[in-house]
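Cont'd.
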Amino acid sequence: MSEMWGISGALAEKNRFKTFDKKHPRELAACFSNLGHIVTLLNHYGNVGAFQVAFFRSEGGNVYRIGQTGVKHAAETRLYVYVSVIDHTVYVLTIGDKAQQADDIRRCKEAVIKFEKRRDL
Amino acid sequence: MSKKSTTPAMLAASLTGNPEAAKRVTAHQAETRFVRALIDMRVAKKLSQRELAKRMGVSPSKVCRLESSRDEALNLGDVFLYLKALGMTMSVMFDDPALPAADRIKHYVFAVHSQLEQLQKLACQIGGEDAISEKIKQFYGEVLFNFVLRLGDSYSKLPGATPIRLGDADVPSKTSPHRKSPNNHLCQKR
């Protein structure tokens, strides 16, 4: 039996989550709820390529974004995660809105490269 | 922060420093349980949203909207169409929490009986010698075993009840009594 997928906040930008929760608590909750669904699908299918879900998109470099669903008049929200096949872990990176996405994606990719280098040493 | 013991709700609370965040995540999960089940069924059938939309005769954005909504916002007609496109049917069970527990349990028993009857009809159509028919007979035994197990478990928790011993019970196998006395008479009557 393959190892179960888990989640981790070890690489998360904590301050961003605190700030975002104050501004958009419903959207933040929806993103984390959808994260749970993604982990369930990963446990069932083993890899991200095996399923297509609208709120889960690749941003390249093993960075994925999870959007909010089921929130009326929602602010477009993206929860960025790093899907690590090596240790079967979904690392939560940061959260942001559509306006900040280019900068968020750049920072997330940098964080993942840094983490992978450190891990491979 | 151990990854194995962390749930999305716990992680949300930990990262925001706000326990309310966990409650909101749990509430969202409860409010989208049905939608998630729909998505899971589409994924299990290896269909993309675009492919499903084509089968439904709607735009992909409509499927996207449906899968992004909350359970209470779903349209029954859309759900029916969605399931039909997946090659599935829908059965609705109305449940009145105001009814006594006994009535609600009876309701579920009748529903299970209805499903078993359908299975029995299928077995009769196939005939007694087929491997599928044999599997169905075996499944009946498993249903009975599981039902007795759970009934016994609940019963033993009643105040003053004597625990039911199921030590000698076993899940029926191919060498179970079913083989010795198949319920073929049920088929012959029809």
